Amino acid sequence: MTWPSSNTLIATVTSAGLMAGVAASWATITATGEGKSGTPAIAVSNAPAGGHIYYTATTGLDINPGTLASPFKTIAKGASVLQPGDTLYIRGGTYAETLDNNIPSGTSWASPVTVSAYPGETVIVQPAATLIVRFDNPASYVVLANLILDGTKMTALNPCVYINNRYGTGNPNHIRFTGGEFRNCASNGLLIEASLASPTPDYNEIINVKVHDNGRLDPPNTKLPHHGLYIQSSHNLITGCDIYNNPGLGVHIYKDNAVNGVDASYNTVSNNKVHDNAKSGWRGHGIILSGGDRNVAYNNLIWNNQGGIQVDYNASNTSVYNNTIYANNANRGSAGIDLGSSVGARNTTIRNNIVYGNTAGDIKTGSATHTVADHNTLNATNPLFVNAASHDFHLMTGSPAIDAGLAVTGVATDFDGIHRPQGAGYDIGAYEYVQP
Hints:
By secondary structure, this protein is mainly beta. Among the domains are: 83-215, no CATH class; 226-394, Single-stranded right-handed beta-helix, Pectin lyase-like (Pectate Lyase C-like, 3 Solenoid), CATH 2.160.20.10.
């Protein structure tokens, strides 16, 4: 990109067409091919005030200006200069740092503060400390992109990522993790904890993150296994993640109604792979949606956990749509979909799900009330997966799930992003059948 000053800079163009890291209101983009310049085009950047880009590298110095040629050495130093709309790119390497309430706030998703791995380079944050990332300050509109948060050297039984409102004077919210990994954490990969009734740490996003091999292997029959993601607040999004090899549950959304009067409500869990959890051998559904109102799970692939999806503990108006739930209960445990093993769920809708090969059964309603379960393909009917052994749950020609579903508001595409429907009707499960 060529600017009025004739200096060439690197900018990031988002899928929405916004250019992050652009301070001017316009930019000239010149396309080149085979050594010939194309026609320049003017692109409006819609950049916020600021919009500066800084760099950190293991070879840098914190007395440097933080440019690409003269980067900072530490993430903390880079974070300290950020303002709304700014981006800190971290060059490849391993950083023994803790990001503990030291990332400032943005002002909106159009003007966030972004801390990101440099494009195409691997950044591992691996401190010898009690945790890796903590927000219990007033931070909001922060993006952490493509960072591998590795708890191998953690010194206490804490999560890798901890978001908490315990001080009340400044509630963290609108924190987005995109890409990267939460791995080898001492307890949960991520814990969003509502310690106070208000305000609660809501509207956070975990997008396209690998969450694996977290937590300690507790003895059988303990009630405290650790989980991949443990969320106690509302309006959070978990999408596009690969969640596996955690001792307890893959995704645990729950807040006891009796504690501070807080619910975990209006959360969305979609388009994730959730598999091979419950390493502790005692309990571990792929996903739990409990103790809140209007949580929704759709387009998830859930296999080889102790159970598939659990909706329980006074959960109300929960929606479970178009999930593929296969071969859970590898050791012992619950059914493909469980409702009401204790206090029970109310007004749950279970629709367009493939529930197959789960050894403890397909759908158990237990003490749940006012459940609607329809247009599901259950254990008695082989859904004809392309290759279940290799976890390819696309549908073969002739599958009974094809065109057998019902249109669901809000589920316009499948796990692959294919528009629904592809045929005469909506398909059941996470995938729409596409004619070869």
